[in-house]
């Protein structure tokens, strides 16, 4: 790829040879995901402390630019739950002008990350940190929706978690049964509707049913109209935000956090899209698009944006083939703004609260907590610290402290890999079982080896070296003899590799793990997934396992060397 083509948006590439059939599929997918994004965009905006139209403007402007300029075929951009907590805090302290400043500074940082290749730095965020602040954000989002779900009559709700919970408990007696009925019905529709059909999302059905009920029966519950006066009809208006230069330095840490969250979320979403569509995104181009989108969004009254995993997955499942689908999604929301905006005044806040409860549950990755708790005490400490600081302090502080702890953990684990031992006859004899040179490798067996620490920051090498599984044999033996250290991110990468092999109809065997990696594997869910019988002490035992599985095969196998070099933080 030459220097000019490496910065070419995927939309330009996809337009070459674009057909009417492709457009039809993209049109259907774009319309579908546009409807999915409608309640989410409004809900994220309200939860962030800004009017609902700010979320729609973000989905229209940023969503269009991310698809038009990005490095993924099927990425859908817009407001997401990742930003709700930090945006709400900025609005309370610095107002909408401060929020616009943060968005534009974050956009500039994303441009720098994209143009310099620093986007790869997001891989240095370990899994306990990402799980910790994801859990924390999900809990905070859910806590902000309790008031609207129950219809409580309270003074302005505090932004601090504990103070918010205390106030909600104090005013619990003001719960209104009409609001609870609408919220509970909306939640039930969202959860049960997919059992009937997945063609139309349950959130849209809940939105339509509850809105009609409020309009027809004039239910005494709070709506977008009663709280915000409705949504303005028409195009998003271009306007220069009212910046204050004195806010630049105080808001720089927040801008950095928004940029990091946008980078992590968008690249993770692009990776998910690659796995579902068989594509391979361009990370740097994607980050440049995210930067442009976040600079443009505040100019039209929007909030920070990034890639949205759930909407991207919906886009792909709906048949999207190119970025045109993402642009259609944005134009669909624009058409709703132009035509149906007046109807939004009847949308009950209780329904949007139900939508966000489901979002908080889905984004929380709660099942990962059990995995974290089975890992080392240091991994658990990093997760608990990040989670607690996210909920009780501030997301910027949580990410910073979590990364500092992760850096110390990284240094500690690298230091642990250094050993000094006397070479004895017993050592030489034990090593015979690990040597490949005198072994007969069946022709349908591929051997991989990981050399060095397999920690956060290095795990992408496994995915990069195993992109094309069709070249691999029916059995893949992963030699861990020279893998000196393993962490939660490494375990997750091994789980993903195992799942890819399973889907391709291949079997994974592991052999030769040293003490620290072996202990971590034995405590994790990964051992259950790969099977204890497929984790062997050495290559000799692994080849014996192959013979037990499918008999003796002749031929010479291939060993693909996967060198895991130590990378300094």
Portion of residues in helices? 55-70%
As a percent range, the share of strand residues is 5-15%
Rg: 26 Å
Principal-axes shape call: globular
Q: How many domains comprise the coordinates?
A: 3
Distance between the termini: 29 Å
Order of helices and strands: HHHEHHHHHHHHEHHHHHHHEHEHEHHEHE
The description of the largest β-sheet is: 5 strands, parallel
The class by helix and strand makeup works out as mainly alpha
Mean pLDDT: 86
Largest sheet: spatial strand order: 6-5-4-3-7
Q: Identify low-pLDDT runs.
A: 552-561, 563-569
Number of helices, counting only DSSP H or I runs of 4 residues or more: 23
> Strand tally, please?
7
Summarize the structure.
With 569 residues, the protein is mainly α.
Q: Could you characterize the architecture of this molecule?
A:
This protein has 23 helices and seven strands. With 569 residues, it is mainly alpha-helical. The protein has three domains: 19-363, no CATH class; 373-416; 425-563, Transcription Regulator spoIIAA (2-Layer Sandwich), CATH 3.30.750.24. The chain is globular.
């Amino acid at each position: 790829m030459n220097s000019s083509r490496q910065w070419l948006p995927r939309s330009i590439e996809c337009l070459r040879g674009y057909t009417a059939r492709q457009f039809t599929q993209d049109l259907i997918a774009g319309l579908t995901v546009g409807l999915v994004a409608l309640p989410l965009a409004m809900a994220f905006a309200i939860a962030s402390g800004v009017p609902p139209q700010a979320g729609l403007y973000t989905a229209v402007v940023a969503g269009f630019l991310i698809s038009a300029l990005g490095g993924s075929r099927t990425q859908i951009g817009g407001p997401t739950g990742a930003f709700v907590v930090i945006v709400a805090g900025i609005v309370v302290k610095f107002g909408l002008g401060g929020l616009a400043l943060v968005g534009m500074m974050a956009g500039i940082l994303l441009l720098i990350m994209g143009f310099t290749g620093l986007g790869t730095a997001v891989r240095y965020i370990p899994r306990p940190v990402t799980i910790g602040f994801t859990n924390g954000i999900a809990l905070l989002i859910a806590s902000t929706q309790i008031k609207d779900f129950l219809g409580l009559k309270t003074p302005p709700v505090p932004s601090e978690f504990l103070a918010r919970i205390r106030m909600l408990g104090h005013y619990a007696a003001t719960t209104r049964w009409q609001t609870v009925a609408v919220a509970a019905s909306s939640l039930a529709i969202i959860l049960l509707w997919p059992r009937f059909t997945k063609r139309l999302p349950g959130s849209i059905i809940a939105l339509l049913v509850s809105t009609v009920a409020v309009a027809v029966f004039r239910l005494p519950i709070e709506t977008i109209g009663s709280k915000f006066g409705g949504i303005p009809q028409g195009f998003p208006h271009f306007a220069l935000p009212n910046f204050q230069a004195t806010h630049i330095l105080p808001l720089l840490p927040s801008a950095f956090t928004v940029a990091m969250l946008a980078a992590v979320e968008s690249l993770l979403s692009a990776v998910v899209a690659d796995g579902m569509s068989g594509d391979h995104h361009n990370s740097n181009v994607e980050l440049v698009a995210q930067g442009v989108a976040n600079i443009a969004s505040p100019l039209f009254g929007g909030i920070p944006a990034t890639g949205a995993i759930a909407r991207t997955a919906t886009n792909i499942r709906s048949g999207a083939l190119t970025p045109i689908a993402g642009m259609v999604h944005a134009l669909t929301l624009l058409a709703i703004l132009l035509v149906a905006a007046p109807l939004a005044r009847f949308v009950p806040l209780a329904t949007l609260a139900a939508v966000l409860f489901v979002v908080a549950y889905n984004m929380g990755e709660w099942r990962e907590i059990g995995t974290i708790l089975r890992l080392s005490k240091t991994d658990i400490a990093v997760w608990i610290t990040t989670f607690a600081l996210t909920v009780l302090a501030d997301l910027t502080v949580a990410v910073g402290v979590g990364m500092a702890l992760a850096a110390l953990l990284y240094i500690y684990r690298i230091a642990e890999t250094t050993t000094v031992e006397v070479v004895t006859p017993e050592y030489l004899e034990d090593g015979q079982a690990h040597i490949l040179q005198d072994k007969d490798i069946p022709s349908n067996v591929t051997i991989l080896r990981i050399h060095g620490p397999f920690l956060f920051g290095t795990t992408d090498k496994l995915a990069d070296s195993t992109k094309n599984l069709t070249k691999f044999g029916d059995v893949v033996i992963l030699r861990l003899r020279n893998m000196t250290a393993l962490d939660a991110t490494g375990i997750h990468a091994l789980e993903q590799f195992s799942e890819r092999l399973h889907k391709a109809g291949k079997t994974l065997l592991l052999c030769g793990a040293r003490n620290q990696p072996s202990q971590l594997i034995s405590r994790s869910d990964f051992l259950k997934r790969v099977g204890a019988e497929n984790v062997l002490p050495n290559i000799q035992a692994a080849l014996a396992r192959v013979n037990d599985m499918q008999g003796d095969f002749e031929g010479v196998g291939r060993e693909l060397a996967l060198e895991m070099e130590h990378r300094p933080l």
